[in-house]
Write a structure and sequence with these properties.
heterodimer; A: alpha/beta; Glutaredoxin; Rossmann fold; six-stranded mixed sheet; five-stranded mixed sheet; 25 helices; about 40% helix; B: alpha+beta; about 20% strand
Chain lengths: ~625, ~130
């Protein structure tokens, strides 16, 4: 068997793959062969490393050197310098924002150093398409322990004692769910993995299935044994092709090894898993709609109680992250897991950190960590020195948490008290240039599109909310709109059948709660303070700064700018479509184009005064010289 | 692939961990072969290969092999630095496959510094 001195752990998560990490792999192997290093250096394609902001990325082991933003052109130099001559290449290392020096080692980079990995324990360390590598990281040990030395009741007790709660959104205690399904009459029983991740900006489930599919499979086998099920389903959206592929490979390998199918480990327990691919409807992530979809019916939520069933039989449905956490709890014990986190929220949670944040990526942190730590210590703060405004958690069912709650400890209870929710773990960071009404509108648009249409309150209610928000953003807001939003929001909460409908007003209600002034500015003063809403802003060229350079004039797609050589440029407001191109192209040294909101656009100079007088400028220069 | 039993997990694990342990960056010793242009010209690749063979033949799992650039003393290449966990690094000079094999068994595995091939104990201060 070969022995390598260096392993190159190249990320092959969806993010890095779309940035051409497979091309990097080819280039690496070609160069390694050219240098005759093929017996010393191994290239390993791993699942998502988590630091998606800087992909394609690679970790060199055993040195722990972290390389980022790799391109095919970097590879010959990198191979020669680092892998042949042993000189790590600083220009490809992580460069923290607002710092002068690169950080060579992965373990020293704040983004990684502050994380605690349980569900993501194998990310970047194993090749997800090799079951042996999962086994070498203590994989399937928990299953062996469960089947050889524990009764189903003991397993349920451990999961209950650990305090594990569902990671998919609602946070229901996992052990209690399992216990009730074990007791529930009806055969056969089923376990289901909900991998129908649909929140905008959330990708933790996809990432776990891509980087460590066996952790989910192992968790499901243990769960099946605990409740007495012999059949399981993974409900996964078909838009996740890489995850589906790796899951299929993993299921195949587990079957070959006898870890799925008849007589697992030769210990008499039978269990197998089927993949059910969803067509990507958001509502399918809702438990009752999900089972309806597995049954082949239209995915419409059902009234609960009675308990959710699959083909009328008992079923346990847990989210990807929950299943991936189960083996670790069985291996390390309930006390260990319960020692992490807060009083009612135990363990860790994976968040996808996106939006206006330097270190976009996937982070796993202990419950109880503050938003400040996540956004600044791990996330590296807000790009371009902008001010932090709010963070949106919990996806379309969640809400916005403002800057003055930055020290909020993140757990199920605190987030709910703050008017948001844990949800599946999306975290979208908003900066001062983000309009809060626009954000609420974005989420409402999403739920309005995705509403299954069964309940009037959700179907029509989201439409009505959206209409009002549209009006407000267009400068047609009226006195009383805010009260209407609040009242309708509460009514939708009360009247909707499923969790998605009940929570759809949250993005509106939470922003009204924390950012009422911003709504009022839109409605009363027709002003969008973040200068985002097109209906409320105007573009204006400051005649004292315009240098008549013709750049904006030539780039304006609406031909709304008049002027010429030595003629000050003027925007014809009646033609302007507010696309913002003039602002983007105006040279920063002039800075003549500005956005105005809530104030009238100053009248342009009369045509006879539009001649740009440069003489004065050159005369001044002459004096200085 | 045959169906496995519980006890097979250890076997698979041991087999694979020989290769993957490296990724965890843990080891009782680290041997750095200096592979600058001068080192390579003087035969550092052969030193590296000798070490790879030694480790393979002895079925050792927890020793890290690394390369680094020129150590600054080009006339004494090939050179290697041996660093046992918790001890100061030792630089060896003018290596040959025989010398490195001897150092490997005496110092890396046995813990006794091979004085006659050593240049110095410790590293230069950085910064």
């Amino acid at each position: 068997m070969e022995r390598y001195r260096t392993h190159l752990m190249l990320c092959a998560g969806t993010g890095c793959v779309s940035n051409k990490s497979f091309k990097i792999k080819e280039a690496l192997e070609e160069e390694i062969n050219k240098r005759g290093l093929q017996d010393e250096i191994l290239v390993v394609m791993t699942g998502c490393n988590g630091f998606c902001a800087v992909g394609p990325l690679m970790v060199v082991q055993p040195d722990g050197i972290f390389y980022q933003n790799l391109t095919v052109d970097d590879i010959p130099y990198l191979v020669e310098e680092h892998f042949l001559k042993g000189r790590p290449v600083p220009k490809l290392m992580y460069f923290p924002h607002e710092e002068k020096e690169v950080i060579p080692r992965m373990a020293d980079i704040g983004f990684f150093a502050r994380q605690t990995l349980i569900a993501l324990r194998n990310r970047g360390l194993i090749d997800p398409e090799r079951i042996e590598e999962y086994i070498a990281r203590d994989g399937y040990r928990a299953l062996a322990k469960a089947l050889t030395s524990m009764t189903p009741e003991e397993i349920i007790r451990i999961i209950k004692d650990s305090g594990l709660r569902g990671r998919g959104g609602a946070g229901f205690p996992t052990g209690r769910k399992w216990e009730s399904r074990r007791r529930q009459k009806g055969e056969p029983k089923y376990v289901v993995c909900n991998a129908d991740e649909g929140d905008p900006g959330a990708f933790m489930d996809r990432s776990i299935v891509e980087s460590d599919p066996h952790s989910v499979i192992e968790g499901m086998i243990i769960g099946a044994y605990a409740i007495g099920a012999n059949e399981g389903y993974v409900y996964i959206r078909n838009e996740y092709p890489l995850a589906v592929k790796r899951l299929k490979v993993a299921l195949g390998q587990a079957r070959e090894y006898g870890l799925l199918g008849e007589n697992i480990f030769d210990l008499g327990f039978n269990f197998d898993i089927k993949i059910k691919r969803g067509a990507g409807a958001f509502v399918c992530g809702e438990t009752t709609a999900l089972v309806a979809s597995i049954e082949g019916k239209p995915p419409e939520p059902r009234q609960r109680p009675p308990r959710t069933t699959l083909w009328g039989k008992p079923v346990v449905i847990n989210n990807v992250e929950t299943w991936a956490t189960v083996p670790v709890i069985i291996s390390r014990g309930a006390d260990w897991f319960a020692s992490i986190g807060t009083e009612k929220s135990k363990g860790t949670k994976v968040f996808s950190l996106v939006g206006k944040i330097n270190n976009t990526g996937l982070v796993e942190v202990p419950m109880g960590i503050t938003l400040r730590e996540i956004i600044y210590d791990i996330g590296g703060g807000i790009p371009n020195g902008k001010k932090f405004k709010a963070v949106q958690t919990g996806g379309p069912s969640g809400g916005c948490i403002p800057a003055d709650l930055m020290d909020l400890a993140v757990d199920y209870e605190r987030l709910t008290e703050a008017g948001s929710m844990m949800g599946s773990g999306g975290m979208i960071v908003l900066d001062e240039d983000t309009c809060i009404v626009d954000v609420a509108k974005y989420f409402l648009k999403f739920t309005n599109d995705e509403s299954c249409g069964r309940c009037t309150s959700c179907r029509e209610g989201s439409e009505a909310l959206l209409e009002v928000l549209d009006r407000i953003c267009n400068g047609e807001g009226e006195e009383g709109d805010i009260v209407f939003l609040e009242e309708l929001g509460e009514a939708i909460k009360d009247a909707s059948l499923c969790g998605l409908g009940q929570s759809l007003p949250n993005p509106v209600l939470s922003t009204v709660r924390y950012f009422k002034e911003e709504y009022e500015a839109h409605i009363k003063y027709k002003k969008c303070p973040a200068l985002v809403c097109k209906g409320l802003i105007s573009y204006y060229i400051d005649p004292s700064k315009c240098q008549a350079c013709l750049i904006c004039l030539r780039n304006c797609p609406a031909e709304a700018i008049t002027g010429g050589k030595n003629q000050l440029h003027v925007i014809d407001q009646s033609k302007c479509t507010k696309c913002g191109i003039c602002l983007d192209v105006c040279p920063t040294r002039f800075g003549a184009v500005t956005r105005l909101s809530g104030e009238p656009v100053p009248a342009p100079p009369p045509p006879e005064e539009r001649v740009l007088v440069r003489a004065k400028l050159s005369k001044e220069k002459g004096e200085i010289a | 692939m045959p169906k496995i039993k519980v006890e097979d997990l250890d076997k698979i694990s041991e087999e694979v961990r020989r290769i993957t342990l490296l990724r965890e960056g843990a080891g009782r010793a680290k041997i750095t072969v200096h592979m600058g242009t001068c080192g390579i010209a003087a035969g550092a690749r052969e030193i590296m290969n000798t070490l790879l063979v030694e480790i393979e033949q002895r079925n050792i799992k927890d020793i890290i092999l690394a390369t680094s650039g020129c150590a600054g003393l080009c006339s004494k290449e090939p050179m290697a630095t041996v660093e046992l966990k918790g001890e100061a690094p030792v630089k060896y000079i003018e290596l040959t496959p025989e010398k490195i094999r001897y150092i490997f068994s005496e110092h890396v595995l046995g813990g006794k510094i091979v004085g006659e091939y050593a240049l110095a104990i410790g590293s230069e201060r950085v910064g």
